[in-house]
Every structure is written in C-alpha cells, then in structure tokens.
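Hi all, a correction to my earlier message: I attached the wrong file for Anti-sigma factor antagonist. Here's the right sequence:
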Amino acid sequence: MAEQPDVERALSLETTETDGVVVVAVVGEVDMATSPPVRAEVSRRLDARPAALVLDLRRVVFFGTTGISMLVEAEHHARRLGVPLGIAANQACVLRPLAATEVDTLLTVRPDPAAAIEAVLPESQ
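and the right structure:
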C-alpha cells in the first residue's frame, strides 16, 4: 500500500487578523494533497466577511495547478461576498505559474501583505 504524504509537514497555515483584515500565510507546498486545508481556511475566513483577506504565499516552495485553481476559486468567492482579496507573493515558484496562465491579471498580487492590503483597501493607509 502506498504511503499517504505527510500533509502536516508539507504545509502549515498561520492566520492573523488586524483591524478586520485577515492574513492567511501559507508555508510549504500547495498541491493536490495540501490544498484542502488552505481552501477550507480561506473559505471559512471569507464567509465571516472580513474587511479584506490577504493570502500570503511568500513562504510557498511549490505551487502547482491546484494552487492556481484555488486562487481563482477564492477570487470568485470573495467577489460574490464583496470581500476584497489580495495575494502576497514575491517568488518565482508562485509568480511564474500565475503569469503563464494569466491568472495574475485576475488577482491583486503584490510582493508583501502590506502592499496587498494597501492595493485592496487604499483608504487603510
């Protein structure tokens, strides 16, 4: 029998909230095995309708097509709820797939959470 990947070692989430803005930091790999907890946390946080949500991907080391799909779903969910969504990413393993698929044109992507918050909530700065 094949071993199940150790999702807990491959991925961790750190969620903070300041002044109604939620930042979900993803650490590790985003793939088919690890994306369900990320999707669940993002969905749960969006459903609470924060002032904004930023998905911090700066410590992601692998970002596959599942990650791209996850971001598109998050954007659609956020838009339906009227919650501004920003993405913080500054490394090639995330930025290249987003650019290659042109998903970066659908999202507000900035190099760090502060810039993402400012982009989606300009009045906050």
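Sorry for the mix-up. The two ends are 54 Å apart (CA to CA).
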